[in-house]
Amino acid sequence: MNYSLEWEEIPKKVEVFSEALGKTLGSGAVIIEDLILESLHSRLGLESGWKKGYGFSDYIKDLRSKCGLGGSQRWEKKR
User: pLDDT per position in the chain (79 positions), as tens?
Assistant: First the structure.
């Protein structure tokens, strides 16, 4: 599968991004995903917590709902 994603497409295609990371980096993808999630939580002023059975896409969906963001809106630092 071709994982050619433009930077702007990533928020719309989180599942594809996560799958591409896994195929490209193997087990190291989880570390990158965790760093992304920790950074987003920090930028948004939210506490991060890990949930059993949750994947990267699930956490992104939760963050979007907590912040009232749609799929294509940019993440902005909470002031």
Answer: 677 888 889 888 999 999 999 999 999 999 999 999 999 999 989 988 888 999 999 999 999 888 877 654 554 444 4
Confirm whether pTM is higher than 0.90: no
Q: How far lies 47's CA from each of 2, 63, 64, 65, 79, in Å?
A: 35, 11, 14, 15, 15
Concatenating the DSSP letter of every residue in 4-40 gives ---GGGTTT-HHHHHHHHHHHHGGGHHHHHHHHHHHH
56 closest CA partner among 22, 8, 9: 22
Identify the burial level of 15 via C-beta atoms within 10 angstroms of its C-beta, where 0-12 means exposed, 13-18 middle and 19 or more buried: exposed
Whole-number Cα distances in Å, 2 to 12, 19, 20, 46: 17, 11, 9, 34
